[in-house]
Amino acid sequence: MHGAKHMELTMKDHLIIFDTTLRDGEQSPGASMTKEEKVRIAKQLERMKVDIIEAGFPAASNGDFESVKAVASVIKDSTVCGLARALERDIDRAGEAIQGAASGRIHTFLATSPIHMEKKLRMTPDQVVEQAVKAVHWARKWTDNVEFSPEDAGRSELDFLCRVLEAVIAAGATTVNIPDTVGYNMPQQFGELIRNLRERVPNSDKAVFSVHCHNDLGLAVANSLSAVLNGARQVECTINGLGERAGNAALEEIVMTVRTRQDVFTCDTGIDTTQIVSASRLVSGITGFAVQPNKAIVGANAFAHESGIHQDGVLKHRQTYEIMRAEDVGWSANKMVLGKHSGRNAFRTRLQEIGIELESEEAVNAAFARFKELADKKHEIFDDDLQALVSDEAQAQEQEVYKLVSLKVCSETGETPHANIVLAEQGAEKQARATGGGPVDASFKAIEIIVNSGAELLLYSVNNITSGTDAQGEVTVRLSRGGRIVNGQGADTDIVVASAKAYLHALNKLHSKLERAHPQV
Fold first, then answer.
1. What distance in Å separates the CA atoms of residue 342 and residue 375, rounded to the nearest whole number?
2. Residue 311 in contact with residue 303, Cβ under 8 Å?
3. Which of 201, 294, 350, 455 is placed for a possible disulfide with 479 were both Cys, Cβ 3.0 to 4.6 Å?
4. Which pLDDT score, from 0 to 100, does residue 154 have?
5. How far apart are CA 385 and CA 518, in angstroms?
6. So where are the chain's domains?
7. CATH number attached to the domain at 2-287
């Protein structure tokens, strides 16, 4: 008896981590990813032991459909999920996209708040219940793993919400997800909502309760955790809190709070936390959304104890100021250094260790050649350099309309900076010269003389990939044209060259017309 009681105390519930970086994260203006990029991130999420990967919204565009299909075909250990509105054609498209998955899920949603039902759907409450049930039945034809979300649940009437949830659970939804779509809730209020729903919906024990919180007031993580304390057992989150407007709940903060405060939580995730920093760097590199230095867990300063008192305390006894160990979230793993004398084998092994798989021998050779080139300019090459190098390599493999052949810039105090650039457009070389306010401005103007894209520059940002004066700079350029927003990245030890590469990468993306529809439209 005593043994059984002890077992009860130590057996923790499993908290399901549902990562929507590839779907909701991708909805941030400019964060759209290519199919190959989505697959790279999905593989890292799988390595991190994420339970469910929401890979996209298959009905949004052919590009999205192909991406979800590609992720579903390579991921074996995580469930791959596709989002669908509560419409038969959307659900069929999601069903087709996840067909090849080892484990697949369809996530369907329909708005339930008075303002959404009246103004957006133009449906009566009865019609909404009927449509929701129909959608779940339809999704069950494809898979028995079906999630339903009442959109804008935070502003829905409680009685009606209970009615919808009871009906969809009866129809076969195995997960019901309560979103705070506009990030309006307060932690206590949101936790109470979850508890209320679990108590009032008669068949609530037949489904996992999930939450999906937005960060408009900076409360996404707090709201999610309050829900977990009130019985939610799935949290929908993204790496670095990526997402539209102010973003979503940050996966790393949810996971580490639950792990660090096991005195408070009666559940835990199955996440391999040592993969967190790698995932953060990968997503940041691919989307061009830099992580602020003071960001919890994954910010560059998250574990830096600057003040003398803190340093003294940490040296004497770690727990004085450290509640987590940096290596537990993957910070120390970044110490492996390669240099110009490292051979192909060490290079290939290191790529495998940080989870980069190159498709072919040619790809390995091309990446190794780039690595050698970089090693001549830079004394030590870190994991982050390798990630950037492979991203650069992947860009080179994409359908490139424009390619940088050569760049010469002159920047001198008291003189007007100018740039001479040679580009290959569809293989044909063209050159131009321009002056500008600085070497980067001159380079961009020279590029525009050749391409005349008509695009507007929305963002230009530089991050050093590692520390030191010989570090590679990674430049992100965001361009907008005709309502489409794209990000381009370029990495080089020369910032001006990295800038030109990033600008051309963005222009190439504007050329590839993978149009996307927004899921909420």
1. 9
2. no
3. 455
4. 81
5. 34
6. 2-287, 336-395, 400-511
7. 3.20.20.70
